[in-house]
Amino acid sequence: MDCADKILALGCIWASAGFDVNIRDPNAQQRADGVAYIEKNVQSYSAKTNQVPGSFEAVEDMKQAVRNAWLVIEAVPEKLELKIATFAELEALVPDDCILASNSSSYKTSEMISQISDSTKTRVLNMHYYMPPACMIVELMTDGYTSPEIFPFMVERCKEAATSPYVARKESTGFIFNRLWAAVKREVLTILAEGVSVPEEIDSMWTELFLKGKSLPCRTMDGKMFAHPH
Q: Does the annotation mark 139 as catalytic?
């Protein structure tokens, strides 16, 4: 699933939970694709939420898209200057109590809020989805100013949308899982580069230990499953 497909899936996720969804995109083809994706998939998503789907449309005008929003999820290209400008534009257009979120995992939202007021900063957070509908995890993270009460509220709304929310306790580039996965990838590539093993054997070991064995990282460390020479 590429980035554009993920954005369409986000609209489908929230529509499936009974929320009304506006997708804003300046490209007419992207707008048409967004509506088509939700029309095709919203009922299958709703099988998990047990809700009657909400309305959905795709519009070109930003003001029209967000004028009555309680939540806006930014998913523009990963260019920091564009994200900063987008949040500044949104601040001027959304209701005063609207929550502003970024789907970015490359940047912290604290890097995107230099042009918005201190009061608006309390309503901003990162909200990063993975690959729905196969993986319905969403990670939530503060911008350093986010009001604490936003997190339990958003956790409950995410659960209503049949996603699995996880809250990062502090700001972290890459959130939780991406940092873990980056470390795994880095070490696997090192093992391969040094000629210690081959891909097929690494995948086979991972399957035996973690898939078939159902081992979990922290629980495995607590249980001292492996010997660690000193």
A: yes
Task: Please name the amino acid found at residue 17.
Answer: A
Q: What pLDDT is recorded for position 17?
A: 96
Name the catalytic one among 60, 89, 139, 194: 139
- How far from chain centre, in Å, is Cα 162? 14
- Angle at which helices 177-193 and 199-206 pack, to 10 degrees? 140
Q: Are 125 and 109 in contact (CB under 8 A)?
A: yes
Instruction: List the beta strands (DSSP E) in the chain.
Output: 21-24, 56-59, 71-74, 99-102, 124-129, 137-142, 164-167
Contact 45, 162 (CB under 8 A): yes
Q: For position 1, what pLDDT does the model report?
A: 45
Residue with tokens 């898209």, as numbered in its chain: 65
Instruction: Give per-10-residue mean pLDDT for the chain (230 aa).
Output: 70 96 93 93 94 95 96 94 97 97 94 97 96 92 98 98 96 93 96 98 94 86 61
pLDDT at 219: 85
What is the distance between the alpha carbons of residues 16 and 20, in angstroms, rounded to a whole number?
A: 9
**Backbone phi and psi for residue 7, each to the nearest 5 degrees, phi listed first:** -60, -40
- Cα gap 86→75, rounded to integer Å: 10
